[in-house]
Design a protein that fits this description.
Layout lengths: L2 H25 L2 H24 L9 H9 L2 H7 L2 H25 L1 H10 L2 H21 L6
Length: 147
């Protein structure tokens, strides 16, 4: 499969997860909203990794590590590097860390109770809204790839 085809695969999986997050919000399953938001962003970034590098990303759920493996390299960052890109990266990096926290909390029962106490409807909606914006920005980065 070509990198562009793999990217489409990852992007479709990410869109599905984003739609699932919306469904979970409507169902009142707030912890699953934030978990699916993490999954959507992770998959979109993994798709970008394949698109830019031609290789699958490392087996990690840390979105920043995957993102930095692409855009931390001059050969790829120079394709999109501008003031707006730098600003968006600085803005979204802490959000990537927040999303990792939601992933860990869903996967490890000891954290699940703590996080579920902190994630109500308002927080879930905030995370979903932010995810939708970040998702669109990540999708826009696909246009700069040489693939």
């Amino acid at each position: 499969m070509e990198p562009s085809e793999k990217y489409i695969y990852w992007e479709e999986a990410a869109k599905y997860d984003l739609e699932t997050a919306k469904a979970m919000l409507a169902a009142g399953r707030y912890l699953y909203v934030v978990f699916m938001c993490q999954q959507a962003i992770e998959k979109q970034v993994k798709g970008l990794h394949v698109l830019y590098t031609g290789d699958e990303a490392k087996r990690t759920h840390n979105i920043w590590i995957i993102f930095d493996a692409i855009f931390g390299k001059e050969e790829y960052s120079s394709l999109v590097m501008n003031e707006s890109f730098d600003q968006k990266v600085a803005e979204h990096k802490p959000f990537f860390a927040d999303l990792l926290y939601y992933y860990i909390s869903e996967r490890y029962p000891a954290y699940k109770q703590k996080v579920s106490e902190r994630v109500g409807e308002v927080k879930a909606q905030e995370v979903l809204t932010r995810t939708e914006g970040v998702f669109l920005w990540l999708q826009s980065l696909s246009q700069f790839s040489k693939q």
